[in-house]
Amino acid sequence: MLSGKTKKYKVDIKTYIRHGLEHVFKKWWWAFLVPIGIILPGVYFTGALVWLILAAVLITGLYILFWYIQFYGLQQLPQGKMIFEKYSYEFDNNGLMVKLNAKEGMPIKYEQIQLVKKKSDALLLFISPIQFFYLPYSIFNSDADIKITESILKRKNLL
Predict the structure, then answer these.
(1) What are the CA-CA distances from residue 147 to residues 48, 84, 105, 114, 130 (Å)?
(2) For residues 53-70, b (16+ Cβ closer than 10 Å) or e, as one string?
(3) Alpha-helical runs (H) found in the chain
(4) How far apart are CA 118 and CA 48, in angstroms?
(5) Digits of tens for pLDDT over the chain (159 positions)?
(6) Does one domain contain both 62 and 93?
(7) What is the number of structural domains in the chain?
């Protein structure tokens, strides 16, 4: 049975937050239209324009802060700590095996993975909007492992 294997890897919290915020803002881009909708009445009622602009900036800042706290706080929760441990990963037809060592591991079925994004330097496997695995291509043992992993993900209609 073919499988794609990786070396042990621990994701950096800054990298995790950056990719997580990028995903959320691309997915819910329309939320940034709310501040524009708040400012538009101010153009008509010129006396309230300054207050509406301040409200729009405050709402936008709070929205960004909310998502930043979600990603940063994930490392503090017991459910999220597993993402920030040092693991090796093994992809096969049954699912993804997240291995702590040769004897201990946790299987993740492909049905649990909601979305896979292929970037120029990594694969992102989303379990939920804030839980994902960041797997840079540099941690794969060879180019053949990358190709096997991508072909398995394509067969499972995730990539």
Answers:
(1) 58, 25, 23, 21, 26
(2) eeebeeebeebeeebeeb
(3) 13-27, 33-44, 49-74, 78-81, 143-155
(4) 45
(5) 567 788 888 888 899 999 999 999 998 888 888 888 877 777 777 666 778 888 888 999 999 999 999 888 888 888 777 788 888 888 888 888 888 888 888 888 888 888 899 888 889 999 888 888 898 998 888 888 888 888 888 888 888
(6) no
(7) 2
Specify the length of the chain in residues: 159
CA dihedral sign of residues 146, 149, 150, 151: positive
Same domain, 104 and 147: yes
**Max Cα distance, the chain (Å):** 70
Q: What is the CATH number of the domain that holds 105?
A: 2.30.29.30
Residues facing residue 108 across a β-bridge: 96
The predicted model scores a pTM of: 0.81
